[in-house]
Amino acid sequence: MNTIAVQGAALPPATRNRDTAAERRATLFLLGPAMTFLALLSIWPFAYLIYASFTSYQLAIPIPIEWVGIDNFTRMMSNPRFWRSLGITVIFALVAVPLQIVAGLGMALLLNGVTRGREVYASLFLIPMMVAPIVVGFSWNLFLNPIYGPLNSFLKAIGLNPPAWAQSPEWALPTLVVVDTWQWTPFVMIVLLAGLNSIPQRVYEAARVDGSTRWQTFVNIVLPMLFPYMMVAFVLRFIDSFRVFDIIYILTRGGPGTATQNLAYYTYDMGFGRFEFSIAGALSIIQLVLLTVGTMAILGFAKRRDKGPISDAPLPPTVFNAAAQSAMGAKP
Amino acid sequence: MASVTLSGINKWYGGAVHAVRDISFKIEDGEFFGLLGPSGSGKTSVLRMLAGLERPTSGTISFDGTSVEAKTPQERNVAMVFEQNALYPHMSARQNISYPLKIRGLTKAEIETKVAEVASLLNIGHLIDRRASQMSGGQQQRVAIARALVRRPNLLCLDEPIAHLDTLLRARLRGELKRLQRALGTTSVIVTHDPIEAMTMTDRIAVMRDGLMQQIGTADEIYMRPVNAFVAQFFGLHSMNVFTVGNVRDAPELSGQCGAQPVMLPDCVKPHVGAQSRSVLVGSRPGGVSVYKAGEAPRRGAALSLSGRVYVAEQLGDAILVTVQAGDATIQAMTSPDYRFAIDEPVDVVIREDALYVFDDENQRTLRFASGASVSQTDRLATYA
Question: In CATH, what number is assigned to the domain containing residue B206?
Fold first, then answer.
C-alpha cells in the first residue's frame, strides 16, 4: 500500500501535466459533437426565444423587428384569454395529478400483493405509457366518438343519453383528465411499486409484532415511507401536465370554444396559428417561470415536512432504476 | 412474563421444505433461552412461530398453559428485535419506541413516562430525536430493543440482534443484554448462530440442526457432554477435533490408522471399535491436545498419539492454536505461547485418555465423554474472545 502511494507521489510533475492535457483534449474530442448539437438545438433557440419575447417579431407581417421591452408580457398579463388558459392548466394539473397518484398507489398496492407473475402484470399495465400520446389521442377519439364510438353506443344501448364527450363544453376537460390519467397512472404505479419494494419485509413484521393492524401499518408506516416516491411522481407528473398538448390537439383542438385551451395549446395557437412569435415566446417564458416556482414550492414543502430535529431524508436516488428493474422483471 | 411450552412443533414450507421437525421444549418464566444452530437449522422458524409471525404446521405452543397458536403477536404480547433495519426509518427513535404504545391508545403523558424510562435503561436518551439513518448500527439495535421492552412483553424474541455489529460492540452488548434481561426478568429467547453469544448470555441453550433438536442444556452441560459429534464440533469457541481411526488392530498394541498414518490408541477406545468396520470415531477439544516436536512425546500408555506436520500456528496472545495435519485428520491444539512451531514442522500429537471423546461411527452419538477435569481450562477460558 505504502509503496504504491509513494510511487504515485513520485511521478514527475511534467508527466502528470501532459497526461492532464491529453485527457483534456480527449474530453473535448469526445464531448465536442454532443455539445455542438446541444448548443445548436437547445441553447441557441432558447437564447433566441428569450430575445424574441422582448421584440415585436411576427412571422406573418413583414415589419422590422423592434425591441419592445416587456410589452409582450404586460399585454399577456392583461389578456383574459391568458388567465383563462392558465386557469385551465392549473385545474387540469390539480385534478389529474392527484387522481393519478391515488389510482397509481392503488394499483401498486394491488400489484405488490401479487406474488406470481408480478412482472408480467406490471409490463401489461405499462402499455398505455409506452404508446405515443398522439396514438392515445386517436384511439380515444374513436372510442369516444359520439356517433359511432363504442362507449356511447354502449351507453345508449343501456338507455342513457350520453354527452358528446370531447365536443361537450362541460365534459371536454374531464374527458382530457381521464385520458391523461389512463395514460400516465401506470407511470405513477411503477414508481410507487419501486417504493413499496424498498420497504424491507422486517419493517412490516416489526409493525405486526408491535400490534399494528394492517390499516395502521399502511397509514403510519407504509404511506410515510412512500412519501418521497410520491413526491417524485407528483413533481414529474405535475411538470408533464403543464405541457399536455397531443391529446388536446387530437381530441378537442382546445375547444369547444376555449374550454380546453391550456397554456401549452394557447402558446401553440399564438405561435403557429397566428404567427405571433414574440407573444408565443413570452408565453413560453411565463410557463417556464411558473413551472420552476411550482416545482420548487412542492419540493420545499416535501423538505419542510421532513424537517425539525429530524433531518431531511433524501429523495431515493435510484427510484428510476428500481422502477425500471421491477418493470422489466428483475426480482426485487 | 410467561413460561412457554412448545410440543410436537412441525413447520413445512410449501410441502417441500420440512424446516422444523417435531420440536418440543419448555422455557421457564423469566428464563433467557438460546436457540443455536447453523443457518438453515430451523431456529429462526421456531422463533417466528413463538412470536406469532408464522403458524406451526402441527403442534402446540402455549404461554402459561394457554394455547396461543391462533393468536396474533399482539394478543400474545410478544416483542421482537430483528437482525437489523427493522426500525421505522421515517420516525425518530422516540417515535419508534412510542409506536407500540401509541397504537394501543395510551395517553401522551403515559407514553412519555414509559419512553423516558426505557430510554434511560438503555442509555439512549441523547439519541432520542434522531432517525435510524443518523444512528450507528449498535445505536439502532439499542433503540429496537427499547421499542421491544417499552410495553413489558410476556416474551421477548431476539433474532440475531447483535450479529451484524462489530466485535467490540458485540461483546459489550452481550453483557448489557444479559444484565438487562436479569434486571427485568422478561422471559427471552435469542436466536443465534454464534455459540459464544449463546454461551455467554443465556441460561439454557437448545442446539438445532436441519430442523431437528440436538440437545438442550446449560452451556456447561453442552460443552462438556455434547450428545453427538455435530454438537461437539459446533459448540464452543473452537470446534472439537473429530476424526476417524480405521483399520484398528489389537496386537501387539491397540493401534489403527488415520489415512496412512499409524495411530496408537488407549484401551478405553476398545469397546467402541465397530465390529464390522474396525474403525472408531474419536474427538478432543483443542485444549486436550498436546503437541510435541517429533520424537519428543513422552511414551505414555493411556493416550492416543500420532505424528503429523504443522499446517499453521496461530498466535492468540495468551496461547497458540496449532493446526496439525496428521494423515486424513486435521487436529487443532491449544498450546502454551512459549512454544514456537514452523509451518510443515514434523510433530507428535498426543490426546490423553481423559480428554478423549468417542462417538458412534454410524449415528455419531457420543459413546464416551472426556472426564471434566482433563479438559484444559485454556479453551474454556478462551471463550471471552
Answer: 3.40.50.300
Is the Cβ pair B90, A205 closer than 8 Å?
A: no
Given a cut of 70, whether residue A150 has pLDDT beyond it is yes
pLDDT in tens, A22-46: 888 888 899 999 999 999 998 998 9
Buried/exposed A236-264: b ≥16 CB within 10 Å, e otherwise: bbbbbbbebbbbbbbbbebbbebbbbbbb
User: In the numeric block, which cell numbers belong to residue A110?
Assistant: 394491488
Q: Does A315 touch chain B (CB under 8 A)?
A: no
Which of chain A's residues have a Cβ under 8 Å away from the Cβ of B84? 202
Pairs across A and B, CB distance < 8 A: 77
HSE, CB side, 13 Å, CA atoms: give it for residue B275: 0
Looking at this predicted complex, what is its ipTM? 0.80
- Residue A256: is the preceding peptide bond cis (ω within 30°)? yes
A185 neighbors A104 (Cβ within 8 angstroms): yes
* Closest CA relative to residue A246, chosen from A265, A260, A267, A269: A265
Residue A244: partners with Cβ closer than 8 Å, 6 or more residues away: A92, A176, A180, A262, A264
Question: Is residue A306 situated within a structural domain?
Answer: yes
Q: How far is CA B322 from CA B153, B357, B383, in A?
A: 47, 20, 17
Which residue, among A209, A306, A315, would best test binding to B if mutated, counting the most B CBs under 10 Å from its CB?
A: A209
Q: Does B104 touch chain A (CB under 8 A)?
A: yes
Q: Cβ distance A107 to A195 under 8 Å?
A: no
Distance of residue B74 Cα from the nearest chain A Cα, in angstroms? 5
Task: Give the DSSP letter string of A44-88.
Answer: HHHHHHHHHTTB---SSS-PPP-B-TTHHHHHHHT-HHHHHHHHH
Q: Between these two residues, A156 and A307, which has the higher pLDDT value?
A: A156
CATH of the domain at B299: 2.40.50.100
Using alpha carbons only, how large is chain B's radius of gyration in Å?
25
Kindly report the CATH number assigned to the domain that includes residue A303.
1.10.3720.10
A205, A216, A310: residue with CB nearest B53: A205
pTM over 0.90: no
Domain that holds residue B80: 4-226
Q: What is the pLDDT of residue A109?
A: 92
pLDDT in tens, A197-255: 989 888 999 999 998 889 999 999 999 999 989 998 998 998 888 888 888 888 888 77
* Calpha distance B146→B124 (Å, rounded): 9
Closest Cα in chain B, distance from residue A206 (Å): 6
Task: For chain B, give the mean pLDDT.
Answer: 88
How many structural domains comprise chain A?
A: 1
Sign of the CA dihedral with A90 first, then A95, A96, and A97 last: positive
Residue A42 has what DSSP assignment?
Answer: I
Instruction: For residue B80, list chain A residues with Cβ-Cβ distance below 8 A.
Output: 205-206, 209
| Residue B337 in grid coordinates | 505461547
Give the chain B residue whose CA is nearest to the CA of A201.
B86
* Nearest chain B CA: its distance from A221 CA (Å): 7
pLDDT at B384: 36
The C-alpha of A202 sits at a distance from chain B's nearest C-alpha, in angstroms, of 5
